[in-house]
Amino acid sequence: MADKNKSNYNILPDNYSLYKRGLAMQRERYKEANLDNDFDSMVKCLENLKSELKNKAINKGNVNFIIRIENIIDWYKRLPQKYTVRKEDGYFTHYPDDLHIKISKNLNIAYELLIKIMTILDLL
Questions:
Q1: Distances (CA, A) of 38 to 30, 59, 78, 94, 101
Q2: Between 20 and 30 A from 67 (CA), which of 3, 6, 45, 124?
Q3: What is the rounded CA–CA span in Å between residue 17 and residue 4?
Q4: Other C-beta atoms within 10 Å of 114: how many?
């Protein structure tokens, strides 16, 4: 059987800096995790993007965007504490049925804010 050659298509122009390539990679990972409903990976990508853009965004006067993104990330990380209850057999975490919708909505709001910041900073 003949080997199938994998070919890598570089969709980014060659004049992109390593910084912009890293941001683009994180955005693509976020989108892939979003399709898979992998919320933990989505939050990690948001954290990575936020940490890269935070100082530049604050210098441009976008403190409110950063604060809102940080609040959404903190909200997600505190969900297990909010929905964990103690019973006779130990601790149980019981999430509401529609929580995945709320999580997806809030994480996508944070992503949209990061895209706005990147647009303001002329990184897209």
A1: 9, 32, 17, 18, 13
A2: 124
A3: 31
A4: 24
14 vs 51, more confident: 51
CA 122 to each of CA 27, 53, 56, 119: distance values in angstroms, whole numbers, following the listed order:
15, 12, 11, 5
- Model pLDDT for residues 43-54, shown as the tens digit of each residue: 999 999 999 999
Token pair listed for 48? 């990575």
Give the amino acid at 11. Answer: I
16 in a domain, yes or no?
Answer: no
Total tally of structural domains belonging to the chain = 1
Whether residue 57 is contained in a domain is answered as yes
The reported pTM is 0.82
For residue 28, pLDDT over 50 is answered with: yes
- Is residue 40, in this structure, part of any structural domain at all? no
DSSP-derived letter for residue 76 is H
Domain that holds residue 67: 49-124
Amino acid at 39: F
**Contact in structure between 108 and 43 (CB atoms under 8 Å):** no
